[in-house]
Design a protein that fits this description.
Elements (H helix, E strand, L loop, with lengths): L1 E6 L1 H4 L14 H12 L6 E6 L5 H6 L1 H4 L7 E5 L2 H9 L6 H17 L3 E5 L13 H18 L2 E3 L2 H7 L17 H16 L4
Parallel strand pairs: 1-2, 1-3, 3-4, 4-5
Amino acid sequence: MKIVFFGDLITDGGRDVNDINSLGNGYAKILADKLRPIYPDTDIQLINRGKAGDDVSDLLARLEDDAIAHKPDAVVMMAGINNVVHHFKNEKVLDLKKLEADLKELLKRLKKEGITVIFLEPFLLPAPDKLRMRKLFDAELEVIKKTALKYADEYVAYDEMFNGLTGSIPYTEYAPDGIHPTHRGSRLIADQAIKAIRKHLL
């Protein structure tokens, strides 16, 4: 079984872009290390195609070359946080209708190829400089959730889970800047994602 991880820097995890076998040091690597021992008799190939800075439209633009061309059985994708970040920091206005259209097209193209899609929900933790993003992020999350639930095979929720945990544990334990996960945060992402992936292992 071949699985492609597709997304932004959270998926990238600092991978070596010149090494197709490099999974980086984020949730993709942690997930791989947990998954392979569970299925020692199954040939599981894992490819990381995360790329720092990508928003949903960027992923759509490179979908063919970086995901479909690998002919994966499944694509595990986390996307959406950069749409909000770019809106506030790079003057790239977040158009929710365009976001919905781009995400719908992305997911439909994957499904048309017979690829199982595991969609990992983006999240935003309450770092002081990210609080202003929360309202727009909530609106974006509604669009993402509605679209992914309709077109993806699995939708793994993280935002409510992470924010719930910060009621008793500092958010910095999971993502110091509210976005990029620590090793502890990445482990949680991997642990939840692996439950969804295992439903579809051949």
